[in-house]
Amino acid sequence: MDSKNRFHLLALAFTALLFILQPYSTAQDSPVVSKGSLQFYLDHSSFQGKEGKTYAEFYLMLFSDQLIKDENDTAAVKEFIVKSIISDSLGINIVSDKQWTTNALLTRDSMNPEILVVYDQWAELMDPGVYNVKVMVSTEIPAGSGEADFILKIPSFKPGTFALSEIEFVSEVQDKKDNSPFIKGNRDIIPDPWRRYGALNSRLSFFYEVYNIPGEAELSGEYIIRDNTGKIIKKLSGIKINNSSDNISIVHGINVSGLPTGVYDLSVCVNDSLNNQSVSQTRSFEIIQMDTTVHKTTLTEEEAEIEGGLIKYVGTPSEYSLYKNLDLNGKSRYIIIFWAEKDPTPGTPENEFLQQVIKRFQYANQNFKWQSIEGWKSDRGRVIIKYGMPDETESHTSEAGTRSYDIWTYNKDKTYVFVFADLRSNGNYFLIHSTKEGEISDPNWREYIR
Questions:
Q1: What span, in angstroms and rounded, lies between the C-alpha atoms of 426 and 169?
Q2: For 144-163, what is each residue's pLDDT tens digit?
């Protein structure tokens, strides 16, 4: 097999298409990333407001490691300052100028803080039109700042007209919390300003509102995903919508684990068959997948991190040490060699070991995600990727006097046991004992779950 074909089969690199790095324009619908020492991601959605105005929401996301000074910084609450300036299309007249401080509560445990995500959200009541938006985020300890500029087009919602809001991409739906900036009705709708799915997150969740529903209406929803050529890739039709009032809100999700890497459009259409009318909205999102159609010669930092994690799991310490000390170009070349050497049947077009790792990676992400932490970075995800599926599993969730825990058994050349426990009773399981060589071993592990 020549090196070109082998590269197509073996490269696990996630193809970051970088559409999120492009600024907004009237023709491009994509999130924006900041410039500066503090990096954050910004998105927005528009909803029907009052008296002919539009209610515009802005969503911000940053990784919490940027809020931590050093390894000795143990403060649980971190502050960052957000400043938002909105001006007219010429950038002359200021429409809104506001500043506030957001407190981020960080969970200080064995989790790596660089994979924790902090969100913020705010809103403006605006006239339809085109605006210039500048958002600045800064921290004092450690000192850092970032800035994002983009052009914002605010749509019009005509009073009394059957209509849809813009689509808001959602990372999580929670019970309503007092003083939360994410409240919609009786829920907290946590936004997803990243809009990246696939291997990173197999379920695309979204929120939208339907306005001015006729008293007699028979509503159904249709969700369509198209690729960048306009071809329909996935379609869900005939989704029953309960029109319990004139205006309703809906949260829905679509499994996108099978879509290949690329940029797609999500179209939401609501049909009223009784009155023969329909309304729709479309927004773009990105799929980053472990597919075998990668044609990249250089990894991004994000891809390199994922590749490094997998090499650390399934490779040797020396292989991982070599990989992490290479620059991005070197890492791109090294992964080709690494996966080629692991191929059990090098004379065939398939790399069975690589395919196993891909399936394990996807399974870990789908089953062991905790809050914003991807499943492959969890202890259970690591064990699945490294050793495969266990032969036997025991789940203990309701025993009196103990915390929840799982026991996995592998029957290989001899029997190995892995014990995972929810030590903080928050759904996050840690490996506390194993009989496998090289893994943490603590015969007194039962003391920790009492």
A1: 25
A2: 899 999 999 999 999 999 99
**Phi, psi angle pair for 264, to nearest 5°:** -130, 165
The 3-class SS string of the chain reads: CCHHHHHHHHCCCCCCCCHHHCCCCCCCCCCEECEECCCCEEEEEEEECCCCCEEEEEEEEEEHHHHCCCCCCCCCEEEEEEEEEEEECCCCCEEEEEEEEEEEECCCCCCCHHHCEEEEEEEEEECCEEEEEEEEEEECCCCEEEEEEEEEEECCCCCCCCEECCCEEEEEEEECCCCCCCEECCEEEEECCCCEEECCCCEEEEEEEEECCCCCCCEEEEEEEECCCCCEEEEEEEEECCCCCCCEEEEEEEECCCCCCEEEEEEEEEEECCCCEEEEEEEEEEEECCCCCCCCCCCCHHHHHHHHHHHHHHCCHHHHHHHHCCCHHHHHHHHHHHHHHCCCCCCCCCCHHHHHHHHHHHHHHHHCCECCECHHHCHHHHHHHHHCCCCEEEEECCCCCCCCEEEEEEECCCEEEEEEECCCCCCCCEEEEECCCCCCCCCCHHHHHC
pLDDT tens per residue across span 211-246? 999 988 899 999 999 998 999 999 999 999 988 899
| pTM exceeding 0.90 | no
User: Alpha carbon 304 to chain centroid distance?
Assistant: 17
pLDDT digits (tens, 9 = 90+) for 254-287: 999 888 878 899 999 999 999 999 999 999 998 8
Closest to 283 in 3D by CA, of 133, 120, 170, 151: 170
State residue 6 phi and psi, 5-degree precision: -65, -40
pLDDT band for 19, please (50, 70, 90 cuts): very low
Distance CA 62, CA 118 (A): 5
